[in-house]
Amino acid sequence: MNRSAVISFAFSLAGVCAFAQTNPVIAEQKAAYESIKNNFIKAAEKMPEEAYSFKPTPEMQSFGDRIAHIAAQMGTCSALTGERKPNPAQGKTSKADIVAALKTSFEACDAAWASMNDKTAAETIAGRGGAQVTKLSTLIRNTTHDTELYGYICPYMRLKGVVPPTSAN
Questions:
Q1: Residues of 85-94 as b/e, b for ≥16 C-beta within 10 angstroms?
Q2: Which of 108, 105, 138 is nearest to 120 (CA)?
Q3: How do residues 68-98 score in pLDDT, each as one tens digit?
């Protein structure tokens, strides 16, 4: 192999490697998502079955309703990969069914995050009210919503004498 061919090959390989690297914004946002996903699943598993019907006040949703609400992210996340699916927790009341639905919804979000790259992150979809929003923005908003609701469920856990996962270490 002559010298110019080797140099050309090296530059080509460097270009392929640079292209294959993860966009740091996507990677950082996915890490935030992974953190809240893990905390939510741990919290849902940690809360006793009998506490799934617990409401701090009669006007509030039960703990189980709060977890089922997060599972509704299935619609958002599955839409990003091509098919909007319904909330798998709809009509579920047992801890086992709600936790399974939560995990299923996170699997849809995992797939949406796995599909993110420079091209797909900038693609737009119809958001609330029909406004066009990027797919990456949609996932970031979903993570923000998950984080907000994790904050809501922590007092439920504390009131039942259960230490939230983020405080357990």
A1: eebbbeebee
A2: 138
A3: 999 999 999 999 999 899 999 999 999 999 9
